[in-house]
Design goal:
heterodimer, A: 439 residues, alpha/beta, Rossmann fold, 7-stranded parallel β-sheet, two-stranded parallel sheet, globular, B: 441 residues, mainly alpha, Farnesyl Diphosphate Synthase, Trans_IPPS_HH (chain B), EC 2.5.1.21 (chain B), D-glucose transmembrane transporter activity (chain B), transmembrane (chain B)
């Protein structure tokens, strides 16, 4: 799928909105690395390697100005205030008004492509999310002002698809982490410093999906490349390929290929088998496909079952990029606490100060009571609560997503596994710490 | 189990007593191969086949039951396939046979097996299944009858049971002979790489999976194309073989048989993570005092490797449509998951031979009846393994992902039977993602 030619032969010129932020900066670097022309629109300039346009995205004129000056043909909109602020008005202003301004400016300037970074959180209201796909209906009531504003912005972006020649797509990454992230690792570091690394809320039987930032960027670039009208032939081709199973994701588990009688190494043979050349050639061919491809196993409830596809209207058809949303994850679901535990373990070793206290598992219900008490106490003394009911909900719920749509339609495959992603993240963090010490 | 041991069990493990009692009350064998109505397919009326059935009971504790419950001709066909493999195994394992003698025997076995009158009496006295080779003529007679005594129309060449069995036999024997020859003629004691380990498992188990699947297709009980799904059928066999290789560590090590690949057990990181020890140089070091942690990390590396086959196995099982074939395939697989859960982080495995308890096995036999329940069983054991994993283990993230994949898999859809233990979950529209109570997920 990745090998199909993209819709436009001409190279796009990119404007990354929020290009100074965590994800935005990674997108800029990836675009630069493949030799594309990139500009950044953001509040503050942190890097000086690309043209920079300063401004608030809710001011449409400023965005328009940047679009004209940069000559952008593709907007990648990653800007958002960070999660967890107690400022609903800010979220609304940036995410909703800002996104509307971006859409208006794009249409006014005839920009053909807009890729919007939504969030998997827009479908999370505290209930378990188990293998959900993009058909999951929008929430009646969002979990918090952040997610409410993200959901609204996503709705605006999708509704703008096809207006004035603009094609739009929204990506919903889940649990982004990686070098440059100041939220996830910093939060864990604080907990570790306070000596709380042995505390765990919930029994860690809930499964959680994470996304390494590099994979998230990869998905953004694929979406940008493939965004545009999808031809009927392309849709037919995709439909046909739905019958064949996708390979399993082995980035972290690194499973070796399974030898078969038709495709295997020759081993310590005495006399080679009659078809030795063929089976060895198959084995040495990393793209070997057996004569009978592996069937995709679907029930009639599956999003790509014939029944489901037949029901979808042409605009809804999930086999296109424009006007669609895509969940993006590493495709490697794990227990929620596994990730923090690995990071704590890293801090233990890095500072040679292991927390020897016994692991303390708080049941979810008790966690709720304590969080209520903490929130009340914080309110009483007028501080930001560090431990909230939202966090308890978040750490105890299942949040795993079906990413088949992104794999089929965008051709997305995670490039960096969870294990390698964590390694790169803590390596970056260590380097940052050293820099801070010197300064 | 005798009355006395049942009574002991009642006092020491009341829940297991309950399971076994329920098994005795509720579990009915699906067919009785000795019944006159079954004779046309089971061959019980022929003395030669009756002897083969006896051999099956004597040589296999775990497979005899599920083989005899296969429908139609398949029970007899698979019984003979099993005996051929038993015969091969007996020759391969026999340390009293010098390589010069063993090589031609192994490499010709697919021919010897159907040579009327051929028998083999020179197996070592300790080979517990040597009698099968001594009386091979009964197996040979039955193999020769195989495709003429069928209750279905004469098959085309690629669907002939005997041809499938002998084709697989030839491949298995060649692989066994290659590895045996190398062990006998070089000083290579250990399997070095994971690829080599995988190839060995392909020869002795993956191929069996291929063969059985081709038999399902040939019988018409399963789809034709299933026999061509070599990756899936190999994964099924390999998962079982690798599980046994892990569990039998001590028994094999004491008999100087080493199947674990050095690429896994010899990793530097395991020594480092066990307090700065050097990597294992010899496999015997794994059960030496002071190396317990390091041995457990090596064991967990082996277990992650097997867990990678779990999703393929579940996929394979979902492709089956005949109930007796399903049970035959599913029961060993759920037992393997239970065995992995038993071994994981259990140092006893290095000291003695451990096994899942009888009641657990009985319960798995009763429950391994459909793809959904099997998926739930897999999920349960993944959760058991995951709960015991610790971040000190260098395989921690790999384990976490391998278990997470089994547990987050798309669920075979089914109505929700019990509302009481459900925590509400959000679903994709059109009813997908049937929810499962977290308590058994």
């Amino acid at each position: 799928m990745a090998s199909t030619p993209t819709t436009s032969a001409k190279k796009d010129v990119y404007l990354v909105i929020g290009g100074s932020g965590f994800l935005g900066r990674h997108v800029v670097e990836a675009l630069l690395a493949r030799g594309d022309s990139v500009s950044v629109f953001d509040l503050v300039q942190r890097h000086h390697d690309v043209p920079f346009y300063s401004g608030d995205i809710s001011e449409e004129e400023l965005v328009s100005d940047a679009l004209r000056k940069s000559g952008a043909t593709c907007i990648i909109h990653t800007a958002s205030p960070m999660h967890g602020l107690d400022d609903p008005a800010l979220y609304w202003k940036v995410n909703v008004d800002g996104t509307q301004a971006v859409i208006n400016a794009a249409i006014a300037n005839g920009v053909p492509k807009l890729v919007y970074t939504s969030s998997a959180g827009v479908v999370f209201d505290g209930h378990d999310l188990i293998d959900v796909d993009e058909r999951i209906p929008p929430l009646e009531k969002a979990m918090d002002p952040y997610n409410e504003s993200k959901a609204k912005a996503e709705e605006l972006v999708l509704a703008a698809n096809g207006k004035g020649g603009l094609c739009t797509v929204a990506l919903r990454p889940a649990g982004i982490f990686g070098p440059g992230d100041h939220q996830f690792l910093a939060g864990l570091f604080q907990a570790w410093q306070r000596g709380q690394s042995h505390i765990q809320v919930g029994d860690n039987t809930n499964i959680f999906d994470w996304t390494y930032v590099g994979n998230c960027v990869h998905a953004h670039l694929l979406a940008a490349d493939k965004l545009g009208p999808t031809s009927p032939e392309e849709i037919e081709r995709l439909k046909e390929s739905l019958k064949i199973a996708l390979p399993s994701i082995e980035c972290t588990t690194q499973r070796h290929r399974v030898p078969t009688s038709r495709c295997r190494p020759l081993g310590p043979y005495v006399t080679p088998p009659p078809n030795a050349d063929e089976i060895l050639a198959n084995w040495n061919n990393p793209n070997y496909e057996p004569p009978m491809p592996r069937p995709a196993i679907r029930s009639k409830f599956d999003q790509f079952s014939d029944a489901a596809l037949a029901r979808a209207t042409p605009e809804e058809l999930p086999l296109q990029v424009a006007g669609q949303v895509f969940f993006i994850t590493n495709g490697e679901p794990t227990g929620f606490w596994d990730m923090p535990r690995v990071v704590y373990r890293f801090f233990d070793e890095h500072f040679q100060k292991p927390n020897t206290k016994r692991r303390w598992v708080l049941p979810r219900e008790l966690g709720f009571m304590l969080a209520s008490a903490a929130e009340w106490w914080a309110w009483l003394i007028g501080k930001e609560p560090g431990f909230t009911r939202y966090r308890v909900t978040y750490t105890c719920a299942w949040r795993c997503f079906n990413i088949e749509k992104a794999r089929r339609v965008l051709g997305y495959e995670p490039q960096v596994g969870l294990e390698e992603g964590i390694r790169r993240t803590v390596e970056w963090w260590t380097a940052e710490q050293k820099k801070a010490e010197k300064a | 189990m005798g009355a006395a041991s049942m009574l002991t069990l009642l006092l020491t493990h009341p829940l297991e007593f309950r399971t076994l009692l329920q098994y005795k009350i509720w579990h009915e064998p699906k067919r009785d191969i000795t019944a006159p109505s079954e004779h046309p397919t089971s061959g019980w009326d022929r003395p030669s086949m009756r002897r083969c059935w006896q051999f099956l009971d004597q040589t296999s504790r775990s497979f005899a039951g599920v083989i005899k419950e296969l429908n139609g001709d398949l029970a007899r066909v698979v019984c003979l396939f099993y005996l051929i493999l038993r015969g091969l195994d007996t020759l391969e394992d026999d340390m009293t046979l010098p390589d010069e003698k063993k090589q031609p025997l192994l490499r010709q076995f697919h021919k010897l097996a159907i040579t009327p009158g051929w028998t083999f009496t020179e197996s070592g006295p300790d080979e517990k299944d040597r009698q099968v080779l001594v009386e091979w003529t009964v197996v040979c007679d039955e193999l020769l009858l195989l495709d003429s005594r069928l209750t279905r129309p004469a098959p085309t060449a690629s669907r002939r049971y005997r041809d499938i069995i002998l084709d697989i036999t030839e491949k298995v024997e060649t692989g066994m002979a290659d590895f045996a020859h190398r062990a006998a003629t070089t000083d290579k004691v250990y399997v070095e790489t994971v690829d080599e380990y995988n190839l060995y498992c392909h020869y002795v188990a993956g191929l069996v999976g291929e063969g059985l699947t081709r038999l399902w297709s040939a019988s018409g009980k399963e789809a034709d194309w299933l026999g061509e799904q070599l990756e899936l059928s190999n994964a099924m066999g390999t998962m079982l073989q690798k599980t046994n290789i892990i569990r039998d560590f001590r028994e094999d090590a004491d008999e100087r048989r080493f199947f674990w690949p050095r690429e896994i057990w010899g990793r530097d990181v395991y020594g480092k993570a066990a307090g700065g020890l050097p990597p294992f140089r010899e496999m015997a070091e794994m059960h030496a005092p002071g190396r317990e942690k390091q041995a457990l990390w090596a064991q967990s590396g082996m277990i992650v490797d097997v867990l990678c086959y779990a999703c393929d196995s579940l996929d394979y099982l979902r492709l089956l449509r005949e109930q007796s074939v399903f049970a035959f395939c599913a029961i060993p697989q759920t037992m393997a998951m239970a065995t992995l859960a038993l071994c994981f982080m259990n140092y006893e495995m290095f000291q003695r031979n451990i096994k899942i308890r009888k009641a657990e096995a009985a319960s798995l036999i009763m429950r391994s009846t459909n793809p959904r329940d099997v998926a739930l069983i897999f999920r349960h054991y993944s959760r058991v393994i995951h709960a015991r994993a610790v971040p000190e283990d260098p395989n921690f993230i790999k384990l976490s992902v391998a278990c997470g994949k089994v547990r987050a898999r798309p669920r075979p859809p089914s109505p929700v039977h019990s509302q009481t233990d459900l925590r509400p979950a959000r679903r994709s529209s059109n009813g997908s993602s049937a929810t499962t109570p977290p308590s058994c997920a």
